[in-house]
Design brief:
Blueprint (H helix, E strand, L loop, with lengths): L9 E7 L2 E8 L5 E9 L2 E10 L2 E8 L8 E7 L7 E8 L5 E6 L15 E5 L2 E7 L14 E10 L4 E10 L1
Parallel strand pairs: 8-12
Antiparallel strand pairs: 1-2, 2-3, 3-4, 5-6, 6-7, 7-8, 9-10, 10-11, 11-12
Length: 171
């Protein structure tokens, strides 16, 4: 008996500054296999494969630090009731390898009232995280505290690039 091939839950090709990124996530349920391939002029520069405990929901490419080398941002959401967001990010080195980028932790003030349901997006030269604010007594389905937006900038870290939270606004 023949079985139908499973379609990839997420597949996208993005290009910037002569680099093409092929992003694919496969798997069923809340665990997926994420594959990122970077190419320049049709030649593979690097391939990253990792198992992620989330569903990949989007990807963007931008040069946040203006160094002429693009960064790739892949977004995910977990399957729990909080739908917590994730971001996996890489920068292309001048030699063509993919260097991981670490997402810095929010301050206790910025994370006050956080219970997930967050979304990430590149806005100009920043990565932005937006989420509803939960007040004491709120149910997971009904936040009443408005929303918060945390803005991250790409900065050099000790061992790798990192996205550091630099500001937060609330509405």
């Amino acid at each position: 008996m023949a079985t139908a091939a499973l379609a990839a839950p997420y597949q996208n090709t993005l290009q910037l500054q002569g680099v093409t990124f092929k992003v694919q996530a496969t798997g069923e349920g809340s665990t997926q296999q994420l594959t990122v391939q970077a190419e320049r002029n049709g030649k593979t520069l690097a391939v990253e494969k990792l198992t992620v405990d989330a569903t990949v929901v989007g990807a963007e490419v931008e040069d946040l630090n203006g160094d002429g080398q693009p960064e790739l941002f892949v977004y995910g959401q977990n399957a729990g009731s909080g739908s917590y967001g994730s971001v996996w990010a890489w920068s292309v080195s001048r030699r063509g390898s993919l260097l991981p980028i670490r997402l810095g932790a929010m301050s206790s003030k910025d994370s006050s009232g956080y219970r997930g349901h967050d979304r990430f997006a590149v806005v100009e030269t920043s990565l932005v995280r937006r989420f509803p604010i939960y007040l004491p007594g709120d149910t997971n389905a009904r936040p009443t505290g408005g929303s918060r937006q945390v803005t991250y900038k790409l900065v050099p870290g000790e061992a790798m690039w990192q996205l550091r939270p630099v500001s937060a606004t609330q509405d």
